[in-house]
Design goal:
The N and C termini lie far apart (about 35 Å). This protein has one domain. It is built from seven helices and no strands. By secondary structure, the protein is mostly helical. It is globular, with a radius of gyration of 17 Å. Helix content is about 65%, strand content about 0%. Helix 6 packs across helix 7.
Length: about 190
Amino acid sequence: MASPLVLNQTEIMLAAALAGILYILAQDVFNGFGGKLGTIACAGCILSCAVLRNPLLSGSIPAWDVGLRILVTSVVASVAAYYVNVRLKRGPVVGAALVGLVGFFLFARIFRETGMILATVSMCASFAGMSSKDRIPNELVMAVAGVIVGLVFMFSSPYMGGAGGKLGTTAFGAVIAVNAAHKLAQRLNGQKS
């Protein structure tokens, strides 16, 4: 969901066309990694902004009191979405949607000043929870991905604002990193990955 401050109604068609091309090219790669589709959308938006010379928006890094809430929210949301997806066998879309909806209604009511930020990070982390068991083997490994999602969410706040797919891109990067680290740890321990 690109901001209209970044791409207008006509310009968003270029982003959609580029994302469509990238989707076709990426159909057979990175399957099972949560956030893949968001990454494709983000790439379409950023490429469009580059071609059109449209600047992206910027924000600020949240203070650490908010940052701690972001980290906790991110871990809980990523693990909850993964649990619904994999353990309850409801699938990635139901897992992410359920966590995103609960996060929105819960945080918007409980935390007046930071509720929308926490609702947004719960949605972001739920995209990581869309990962398959082949990519993220259990809830502990997903919790590590949740920490990375939270940290990247915080420290990327000043960058790529208004680009649709940024939340999915954040989740995708975290899941790729954790998957690679887990495979490396298994190889170092002599286990088959």
